[in-house]
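haha ok so turns out i had the wrong file open the whole time. this is the CORRECT one, sorry everyone. sequence first:
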Amino acid sequence: MITIIDYGIGNLRSIEKAFERIGAAVQRTDDAATIADAERLVLPGVGAFGACIDEIRSRNLESVILDRVDDGVPFLGVCVGMQLLFERGLEKGSHQGLGLLEGDVVHFHRADGEADDLKVPHMGWNTLQPTRPHPLLEGLDNESYVYFVHSYHARAANDDVLATTRYGHAFPAVVQRDHVYGVQFHPEKSQASGLRILENFARIPSPVPS
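then structure:
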C-alpha cells in the first residue's frame, strides 16, 4: 500500500492516479494514526516551501513522518516534497525543513553565481543524468526526459544525489539516502519515465509486511 500524505496543498489526485496506473494500492490521508501504520510514504508538494512545512506542522504530522522514517519505511518526496527533506528552505525567508538530508533549497538566481536573466521557473521537459546505478532508476535510459516546474532547487551533499539535470547549471533532480528518496520533477506528468520511477519505488523492499 502506498500512502500519500495529504496536508492540504497540491493536486494529490494526479499522483494517486499515477500509482493506480502502475497497479499499486494507494490511499491519501492526513490522519497521523494511518501514517503511523503506513508501509511506504509519499510526500507531494507544490508552491512555497514555508507554506508547505507550516501546514505539515500545523496538522501535527512532522513527528509521525520522522518516526516512520526512523522505522525504515520507504519515503518519497516529490517536487516541493523533495525540497522539504532538506535542512532549510530559503524561499521568502529561512524555513526549517524535515532535516532528513543535508543541504539548503535555493533559488536558481542565487545558486552558483547563475545569471539573473535565466528564465525562472524552470518549466518543461529536461533530461536526467544519473550519477550511479540504483534500483529507483532501474529501466531508465541515461538521458530520460522528465517534466519540471520549479524556481528553487536543492543544494545537496554529493553522496545523496542519484541524478542531476542541467538548467543554467547542474542541480539535483533525484536524491537518496538509505530509504529516503526525492525527485524534483513531477513523475505523474513525466509519462513512461515517471511511471517507471514510481513503479520502482513501489517495489523497494519495506520492513513492514505488505
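The longest strand covers residues 169-177.
again sry for the mixup
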